[in-house]
């Protein structure tokens, strides 16, 4: 199976790197600056599961070739339009597109551009970052990738995909409930991102602050209410686990949005919070805390250099 990984940052570089290390046929579609660094230094992973260094196969926009059997789309949401244009030559009639972007807004964009049949649901759970040396550093042992048909039915193509992704150095799962998995990840990211960005601190500090625990739980309740109204009610087990994570004393847990905010980088506010807010309003669900967090991050984004 020929696999194109769009982006070689912290997420694409990790999963694509592990696939390449396991001998899969993997090519990375990257921008010129990232390509130059990877050609000079290689793709380097620093991980609790073992470090890796490899010379990846690279292509840049305009020289993609194709079609590929699968495209793992790992860019940030604010780079989606450019990525769709660059990867278009890689998408043929039988290509599966696996997006690991946050939220659900990108699913509509992919379906509009390539057709709904091209989209295979995908969820990743991993905490990684690219350090000053250009290495992909895994922050915790969690490295999980789930995928499946959006409608939930088994298919021959996802069985082939599953065979290619399993045994590649990370936890892989062919899920019959991938759409629900994607919604529940969105709920978690929106709650964690909104809480940590609005309060400007990790979960442990928020839980220890006066009213912090109640604030975190109220934020989660708003997000869950939107999902419930949209026809994707979160499971009770998921909610119990998420409530515990959002209120854990002494926890250093933060969101990628908060880490980007602290580093003065763009954040995915529109996709993680703005789209959720818009869906809630359309469904008549009041979300004042989500609205406050989105307004806060919108002000931050407008003040970034170059905006």
From TrEMBL:
List, for all copies, the residue spans of the domain called Ketopantoate reductase N-terminal. Answer: 3-148
Reaction(s) this enzyme catalyzes, per UniProt: (R)-pantoate + NADP(+) = 2-dehydropantoate + NADPH + H(+)
Query: Which Pfam families does the UniProt record give?
Result: ApbA, ApbA_C
Q: In what residue span(s) does the Ketopantoate reductase C-terminal domain sit?
A: 178-298
Going by the UniProt record, its keywords in alphabetical order are: NADP, Oxidoreductase, Pantothenate biosynthesis
Under which pathway is this protein filed?
Answer: Cofactor biosynthesis; (R)-pantothenate biosynthesis; (R)-pantoate from 3-methyl-2-oxobutanoate: step 2/2
Q: Return the broad EC class.
A: oxidoreductase
Parts of the chain that traverse the membrane: none
What Enzyme Commission number(s) apply to this enzyme? Answer: 1.1.1.169
Chain's role: Catalyzes the NADPH-dependent reduction of ketopantoate into pantoic acid.
What does the sequence similarity comment in the record state about its family?
Belongs to the ketopantoate reductase family.
Q: What protein name applies here? A: 2-dehydropantoate 2-reductase
Q: Which organism is it from?
A: Methylobacterium crusticola
